[in-house]
Amino acid sequence: MSDSSLRSITVFRSPKTLTLVLFSSLLIAACKGGSDKTTLEVAAKVGSRDITLKQVDSTIKQQLDSSGGNASMTPAELVAARLSVLDKLIQEEALFQKAQKENLVPDDSKVNQEVQKRKQDASVTEEQYQNQIKQAGFTEEDVRDQVRRQLAINELTERQKARVSAPTDGDIDKYYSDHKAEFKAERGADISVIAVSPNNNGGEAGAEQKIRAIYAQLRSGADFATVASQKSEEQSSAIRGGRLGFASEAGLKQSFPGVPDIATRIMSLTEGQYTEPVKDNASGNWYIFKLNIKRETPQNLTLTDVRADIINTITQQRQQVLLNALVVVTLTETTTKNYLAERIVQNPQAMVEMRPSQLLQPSGQQQAQPRIENENRAAPAPSSNRPASSNSNTGTVSNGNKR
Prior knowledge:
The chain has 14 helices and nine strands. By secondary structure, the protein is an alpha+beta fold. The strands form three sheets. It has a four-stranded antiparallel sheet with strand order 5-4-7-6. The protein has a three-stranded antiparallel sheet with strand order 2-1-9. A two-stranded antiparallel ribbon has the order 3-8. The two termini are 28 Å apart.
């Protein structure tokens, strides 16, 4: 499922390593019922489809890898992670089965188009794409299957969202009145950027060489927007001539955490000026920033200023309630069994005895014995409150419209 549906759009974010992202937490293979899996291998059943413990651990591993997390967990932490992920996979499988019943599964041509789009958005070659899915332990057919499922669930949820009516003028006025103190325009800047990644230029030296050549081109009088559209490797902004939009000083620091003194650097420019090439030590990317507009003092925003944001916020909140209800209804309509949870309830000792699968072992190491838990330290509770979901279509809306 799309990672941006129903989330308030951040003005911009730092492009990390510009790698291909083809799967989210939706890692359920289309397993047929009646398989020869053992009872312990099957974590849950949704309709006639099994969700295996291996699939659960694959999702956990992917999340750990993407966040740079540590796979070392206490038994209780491992159980909590598995229960939380499994709950989300159950929800997603139930939604996919509902999409199947409503004939919303896309054909091969739509799947092909989406796969190609994701390759282009990630700026990867075919060779890089093949290497990435191989390293992740998937086949191309696995990827296509996941994309098909994501598109089907997207279509299901988008149809539900379209049923939500727009807020009235009275709704908008009341929201503004109730939240007036929150609508402030902070100090910050509207900026453009040219980004270069080591991943696309043969490493650190190649990236630095390219960004300095771009800088020399700008110094010779080339138009920033034209150069950005042609040479920036941050695709979402390149198509707008490098324009990222407005961000507060805090937003600048959050979006580019590895750029030293980013807010001070930007705010010290004169409108129309750009920086020398700077490296983001967190992502490894190189940037040239241009200041378009600078706001040096906070301002109170009028209803006219924020009307569109309020409409989006109210609409998103209502859509989220509807999607939460959709998940609940879909689960009640579907026969589900959470075998992992049942085993824990029947035998709490299983929590202590549970070991990570090989998927969750650090490469090249023997399976470690679980570390002893500090009885005074609260273990994280499983995030199993339905209908929360890792998929943004069934997740929590973050209100990014308030300023």
